[in-house]
TrEMBL record:
Gene Ontology MF annotations: [protein-PII] uridylyltransferase activity; phosphoric diester hydrolase activity
Native organism taxonomy: Bacteria, Pseudomonadati, Pseudomonadota, Alphaproteobacteria, Hyphomicrobiales
Keyword Repeat appears in the UniProt entry: yes
Species of the source: Bradyrhizobium icense
Protein name according to UniProt: Bifunctional uridylyltransferase/uridylyl-removing enzyme
Domain HD: 499-622
Signal peptide from the UniProt entry: none
Assigned protein family: Belongs to the GlnD family.
């Protein structure tokens, strides 16, 4: 206690003129003698003005030196002095006790984060008023005077008033209070009273309870990570509570302080917990995270701890990051952030290993931090190797020089751990990290090392082992192209993880696809069983490398293929398989793009895709890679609709590649889909079921999944029995965080535009759409919109408003352009992202239609604007394929002129392109209906 994490507060006291302010307070007391309320108000105003000025100075210095820890120390010192001034004012001018009794003593103590001697600009202030016995009138008055003044200054204050006995009693029973007292720091008042608390806390609470405290803190840490999101590579991390954030460093110090009774972090070196290099890492991580957190508070003006997209660029600029070819300034900043988060995780593992070795805590809980199972034997020889041992069910080194003796051991240690289902001893991982200079060209070209690596990649639990290889730096050194994307963030809302984390997760999902049994991956799992055995390794290495060239100025797919052509021969691939890997990487986005943004019932779409994939075997491999890639992007990105689109594209293309002799030809597949529907949906008489099946075109049966078909059949029947010309069914997809509106209406050329406008007017952002028409002229459109409310009931009411608006527009009672314009006028214009608008007009993607592909920054009302603009350009929209990828909207429209012909004239195409580019690029276009 009475300590701070940092050791250098030099110069802090010259940034807050305590003597001058104290003199001003004394003058106020004299001026307002006898008028306590007036004095209190003037005192609060004086100190608030001084605090604002001191914070402005602190921010100016932070922008200049970019040193967040010093800023936090400076702000903390200012707060210390304000509380000391307040205590002096309360005890000298307001409640002076001329002959104090033994009970009229008080120690004012900082606790919690404030007790560490570091404060972010908008942090709470935690105070403990220590009394010798029970509360007295004098003590209550002094504490209230301090607190009311702090509140009047606009500060957030957590406080408690307790005797020493109460502190000890509550600390025994409450781990939160125990931690707060562990971090207490004396501010002002009666020092002997504080010293008594410290002595009794050490003797009566801490002694003999280290294991209990460590267990509680590590369990608390696990729960915090669960709430914040387990991965330390989430692209909008929580700087304070996220994995690898400041709270993890605080937890390390709490544990070290409690177990080893240290007062400063530097003492951890003396105790042998960290060596000098690890201690420097601890300091460096803390410095960086404090820089981020202080800037985050200053920019947001509140206690914001989430490093959201709209904050990241501003913080990057404040910290001096600049753009490089292929990487924005914000992406370079976030890469640094994730590297720091990784270092924090390494420090945690080191401390946990030290505690386990000393048995400072019971084995089972701690083992979850550093091992999978508790050992049955302490140490034993490793089978198949004299260089490693099994230590508490973790692989460890038999001798310190095993890597220098044989550098292949840097790969072999991971192979043996995987083969024998062992966790990694942190001491071994520490040595691995310090031996990375041994990963040179000789090791990279070593056949045994490359063989072992490929076995790691294609064996069980590859995701876990690859992640450990990545965390130690071995993976990035062994495959240097991978090292360039370690901790690289893509500044967009589509990808949830850093590039390296995404690739490693994709390997995990690829193994799940290969194992089978998961209904999410039925098609991909079935295809995996049918690929040629020699291509198993091909799809694994292609999955690991498909994004390895991200962050380069050129197209990452082309650059990645070039990386594969250099790397694969080294890994043992033949020339033919190397080219296959390169092709998969070069085309890894193609199948997803075609499936989600092309008309799969258009013969030209299928023929064009067949020309790209060239063979059924290559299409199988591409389907497997595409599935793993989409699933690895993040929660909710993969769904049944995308799975169905990939299935449809695969089976539509297969007959083209086989010359018409397909395992399942198109007519047969349509019949099978209808038979599947008949078997699952037995609620209607056969005649009614036959009539209903005849109402849908073949594309519907091939593209829509079974459960959705059943829901829509019930919906259509109920709507028509009720006599509704317009009906809306509302569904909720929790995994994707969207609300689905299924709309049944008489088909109308402007129907999609009307639906889009109604959604925009209700503030609903469309993220994708499935558009179908029936043979009897009804439109069946399913629109997915981003959720606005947590409660399904509220989302349902919003959907009802959208339906009412569509009906009013169709009846001519409401003019959408005016409603959309009013809504847009009230919409904020926060732009965290910049997406260059693109419009492509193509007649090669369809024999009947001109295909317009539009890509730009997504925003409420965009689909309405686009469909309105296209209609006003005298174009008929035959079908639309709407999708969003984070902040990027990619919409594809199949159109003709008013006579049903393609748009061939170059001048006409140029005019269409110019109008749509202008619409996408305009800042104010949401408020102006497209002309």
């Amino acid at each position: 206690m009475d300590s701070i994490v940092t050791e250098d507060r030099s110069g802090a006291d010259d940034r807050f003129d305590t003597a001058r302010i104290t003199a001003a307070v004394d003058a106020l007391a004299e001026k307002h003698a006898g008028r306590e309320d007036v004095f209190r108000s003037a005192l609060a105003q004086l100190l608030k003005a001084e605090m604002i000025a001191a914070r402005a100075t602190a921010q100016a210095v932070l922008l200049k030196d970019r040193h967040g820890r010093r800023c936090a120390e400076r702000l903390c010192f200012m707060q210390d002095e304000i509380i000391r001034i307040l205590y002096a004012a309360a005890t000298r001018h307001l409640y002076r006790s001329h002959v104090p009794s033994g009970a009229e003593r008080m120690a004012v103590v900082a606790t919690g984060g404030y007790g560490r001697g570091l404060m972010a600009p908008e942090s709470d202030i935690d105070l403990l008023f220590i009394l010798p016995y029970k509360q007295t009138a004098w003590g209550e008055q002094v504490a209230e005077a301090i607190l009311y003044c702090l509140w009047d200054m606009g500060l957030k204050v957590g406080h408690a008033t307790r005797s020493v006995d109460e502190c000890i009693r509550q600390a025994r029973g409450d781990m939160t209070i125990r931690t707060a007292i562990l971090e207490t720091r004396f501010l002002t008042g009666d020092r002997p009273l504080y010293d008594e608390l410290v002595a009794r806390f050490d003797k009566d609470v801490v002694q003999g309870t280290a294991a209990e405290f460590v267990t509680a803190k590590l369990a608390e840490r696990e729960e915090r990570h669960r709430r914040a999101g387990q991965s330390r590579y989430l692209v909008e991390p929580n700087v304070k509570d996220g994995k690898g954030g400041l709270r993890d460093l605080h937890t390390l110090f709490w544990i070290a302080k409690y177990v080893y009774r240290v007062r400063e972090t530097g003492e951890l070196v003396e105790r042998g917990v960290f060596d000098a290099q690890e201690y420097r890492t601890f300091r460096r991580c803390a410095d960086f995270l404090w820089s981020v957190r202080c800037n985050l508070h200053f920019v947001s003006g509140r206690a914001e701890e989430r490093l959201s997209f709209d904050m990241q660029r501003e913080i990057a600029v404040r910290l001096g990051y600049t753009s490089h070819p292929g990487m924005q300034d914000v992406e370079r900043f976030m890469k640094h952030y994730f590297l720091v988060a990784k270092d924090v995780g390494d420090l945690t593992a080191i401390l946990c290993a030290k505690l386990e070795d000393e048995q400072a805590k019971p084995a089972p809980v701690l083992s979850r931090m550093v091992a999978r199972l508790r050992p049955s034997a302490k140490r034993r020889r490793m089978p198949d190797s004299d260089d490693f041992i099994i230590d508490n069910n973790r692989i460890n080194l038999a001798a310190p020089d095993v890597f220098k003796h044989d550098p292949v051991n840097l790969i072999r240690i991971f192979h043996l751990a995987q083969k024998n289902n062992l966790a990694f001893h942190p001491d071994a991982m520490r040595t691995v990290t310090r031996s990375l200079k041994l990963v040179n060209s000789q090791l990279r070209e070593n056949p045994e090392a490359n063989r072992l690596f490929m076995e790691i990649l294609t064996s069980n639990d590859a995701e876990t082992v690859l992640r450990r290889m990545n965390e130690t730096g071995v993976l990035g050194h062994f495959i240097r192209a991978f090292g360039k994307i370690v901790s690289m963030m893509q500044f967009n809302m589509y990808h949830h993880y850093t590039v390296d984390e995404h690739l490693i997760r994709c390997i995990g999902f690829l193994q799940e696809i290969e194992r089978g049994g998961n209904d999410e991956f039925t098609v991909a799992s079935d295809l995996f069983r049918k690929i040629q055995p020699e291509h198993r390794a091909v799809v694994y290495i292609a999955t690991l490398l498909h994004d390895v060239a991200k962050g380069r100025p050129e197209d990452h797919s082309i650059a990645g293929a070039r990386v594969a052509r250099r790397l694969c021969p080294r890994l043992g691939f033949s020339a033919g398989d190397t080219e296959l890997v390169a092709w998969l990487i070069e085309e890894h986005l193609t199948m997803s793009t075609v499936a989600q943004s092309r008309d799969l019932s258009d013969r030209k779409t299928i023929e064009n895709f067949a020309a790209v994939v060239q063979s059924v075997e290559q299409m199988k491999l591409l389907t497997i890679l595409t599935t793993a890639d989409i699933r690895g992007v993040g929660p909710g990105v993969w769904n049944g609709w995308k799975a169905q689109l990939l299935r449809t594209l695969y089976y539509e293309t297969e007959p083209v590649l086989t010359g018409g002799f397909s395992e399942v030809n198109r007519a047969r597949r349509i019949a099978l889909a209808q038979a599947e529907f008949r078997a699952a949906f037995t609620e209607w008489p056969e005649a009614e079921l036959n009539a209903y099946i005849g109402r849908h075109y073949p594309a519907y049966w091939l593209k829509v999944d079974l459960q959705r078909k059943i829901r829509q059949a019930r919906f259509i029947r109920a709507s028509e029995q009720a006599g509704h010309q317009l009906a809306i069914n509302v569904g909720f997809d929790e995994a994707r965080g969207v609300t689905e509106l299924t709309i049944l209406a008489t088909d109308h050329p402007w129907l999609l535009s009307i639906i889009a406008g109604a959604c925009a007017s209700a503030g609903a952002n469309i993220v994708d759409a499935q558009i179908y028409t029936t043979t009897d002229g009804r439109a069946l459109d399913t629109i997915a919109i981003s959720r606005e409310y947590d409660r399904d009931e509220d989302e349902g009411r919003r959907a009802t408003r959208i339906g009412e608006m569509i009906e009013q527009v169709l009846e001519g009672k409401l003019r959408l352009p005016e409603v959309v314009a009013r809504k847009a006028a009230n919409r904020g214009k926060v732009r965290a992202f910049v997406v260059e608008p693109e419009v492509t007009i193509n007649n090669q993607w369809s024999d009947r239609y001109t295909v317009i592909e539009v890509s730009g920054l997504d925003r409420p009302g965009l689909l309405y604007q686009l469909t309105t603009a296209i209609s006003k350009l005298n174009l008929n929209i035959a079908s639309a394929h709407v999708a969003t990828f984070g902040e990027r909207a990619r919409d594809v429209f199949y159109v003709t002129d008013l006579l049903g012909a393609q748009i061939n004239a170059p001048t006409r195409q140029a005019a269409i392109k110019s109008a749509l580019i202008h619409l996408l690029a305009s800042e104010d276009n949401v408020a102006k209906p497209a002309a």
